[in-house]
From TrEMBL:
<dbReference type="InterPro" id="IPR004686">
    <property type="entry name" value="Mtc"/>
</dbReference>
<protein>
    <submittedName>
        <fullName>Sideroflexin 2</fullName>
    </submittedName>
</protein>
<dbReference type="GO" id="GO:0140300">
    <property type="term" value="P:serine import into mitochondrion"/>
</dbReference>
<keyword id="KW-1133">Transmembrane helix</keyword>
<keyword id="KW-0472">Membrane</keyword>
<dbReference type="Pfam" id="PF03820">
    <property type="entry name" value="SFXNs"/>
</dbReference>
<comment type="similarity">
    <text>Belongs to the sideroflexin family.</text>
</comment>
<keyword id="KW-0813">Transport</keyword>
<keyword id="KW-0496">Mitochondrion</keyword>
<dbReference type="GO" id="GO:0005743">
    <property type="term" value="C:mitochondrial inner membrane"/>
</dbReference>
<keyword id="KW-0029">Amino-acid transport</keyword>
<dbReference type="GO" id="GO:0015075">
    <property type="term" value="F:monoatomic ion transmembrane transporter activity"/>
</dbReference>
<keyword id="KW-0812">Transmembrane</keyword>
Length: 291
C-alpha cells in the first residue's frame, strides 16, 4: 500500500516496554543486514531522508519504508547519520562474536593462546565501543589508545591469572575463565573509550529534542547500563553459540537507547539552569546512551 505523510522516525514498536525494545533491536541487529553492500545501505538512507523531507517517492509502500529504516538504523550512527564501519555495527555482533567466542573457548589452556584470543577480543570490543559511542562527545586518538591498552591489559591479567588457578578445576569451570576476562575488560574498556562523556557530560534534551545542556550524571547512568548490557550479552555466548542470536538484541533491550532522567537528579548547576529557563515545564531530560 502506498503511503503519504508517513513519520518514519516514530518507533514501530513501543520503546517503553522490554518486548517492544526486543522487537526493535532484533530488527536492527539482524546479522543478514551486515551482508548488504554499501550501495544498498545508501539507497535506504536516501529513502529515509526523502521521507523525513516529506517527499516519499510515488508507489513506495509502508513495508518498504519500514525496511529502509531497518537498514538505516542498523548501519548509520544515530547521532551523526554517518555509515558505521562494518565490524563495529551491532548487526555484526553475531558472526563476529561467534567466531571470537569460539576461539576463546577452544584455545584457553595455554598462555600464548589466551593472550592472542583476548587481544583479538579486546580489539574487536574497542572498535564496537568506539563505533557505538555517543558521537556528541569526541575522543582523541591518545584517549582511544589508552582505553584500548588498559582494557586489553585488564583482560589479559584476569584471563592468565585465572588460568593458573583453574589448572586443576573441572573443564566446565575453566571454560568460564574467558567470560570473567571479558566481563572485567568491559568494566574498563567502555568507560575508558567514552571517558569524554564522563569528564564533560553528555548532551541532554527535553522531550522535543531541544538541547538543555550537558550532564555527567546522565553519562554515568548511560554508560553503566551499556556495561551491564554487554556483560549480559557475553555470558550465554560462552556456553552456546546459538544464544548470541537471541542475546545480542535481548541485551540491547535491557534499557531504552534514548534514556530519560529526572531533572531533580541532575547536577545542581544544570538543574538550576533548566529551572531558570523553563521553570517546572521540564521534568525529565533525554539522551542517547549508546549501545
Amino acid at each position: 500500500m502506498a503511503v503519504s505523510g508517513f513519520d518514519i522516525d516514530v518507533p514501530r514498536w513501543d520503546q517503553s516496554t522490554f518486548m517492544g525494545r526486543l522487537k526493535h533491536f532484533a530488527n536492527i541487529t539482524d546479522w543478514r543486514t551486515a551482508l548488504l553492500p554499501d550501495s544498498r545501505l545508501d539507497e535506504a538512507k536516501a529513502l529515509v531522508e526523502s521521507c523525513r523531507a516529506g517527499s516519499v517517492p510515488p508507489g513506495t509502500t509502508e513495508e518498504q519504508l519500514h525496511y529502509a529504516k531497518k537498514l538505516y538504523d542498523s548501519a548509520f550512527h544515530p547521532d551523526t547519520g554517518d555509515r558505521m564501519n562494518l565490524i563495529g555495527r551491532m548487526s555484526f555482533q553475531v558472526p563476529g562474536g561467534m567466531a571470537i567466542t569460539g576461539g576463546m573457548l577452544q584455545f584457553y589452556r595455554t598462555v600464548p593462546a589466551v593472550v592472542f584470543w583476548q587481544w583479538v577480543n579486546q580489539s574487536f570490543n574497542a572498535l564496537v565501543n568506539y563505533t557505538n559511542r555517543n558521537a556528541a562527545s569526541p575522543i582523541t586518538p591518545n584517549q582511544i589508545g589508552v582505553a584500548y591498552l588498559t582494557a586489553t591489559s585488564t583482560a589479559l591479567a584476569t584471563a592468565v591469572g585465572l588460568n593458573f588457578y583453574t589448572k586443576r578445576a573441572p573443564p566446565l569451570v575453566a571454560r568460564w575463565v574467558p567470560f570473567a576476562a571479558v566481563a572485567s575488560a568491559n568494566c574498563v574498556n567502555i568507560p575508558m573509550m567514552r571517558q569524554q562523556e564522563l569528564l564533560n557530560g553528555i548532551a541532554v534534551t527535553d522531550e522535543n529534542g531541544n538541547k538543555l545542556g550537558h550532564s555527567k550524571k546522565a553519562a554515568v547512568k548511560g554508560i553503566t547500563q551499556v556495561v551491564i548490557s554487554r556483560i549480559t550479552m557475553a555470558a550465554p555466548g560462552m556456553s552456546t553459540f546459538q544464544s548470541l542470536v537471541f542475546m545480542v538484541p535481548a541485551a540491547c533491550s535491557l534499557f531504552p537507547q534514548q534514556c530519560s532522567m529526572a531533572v531533580s537528579k541532575l547536577e545542581p548547576e544544570l538543574r538550576e539552569s533548566i529551572l531558570c529557563h523553563y521553570g517546572d515545564s521540564v521534568q525529565y531530560v533525554y539522551f542517547n546512551k549508546g549501545l
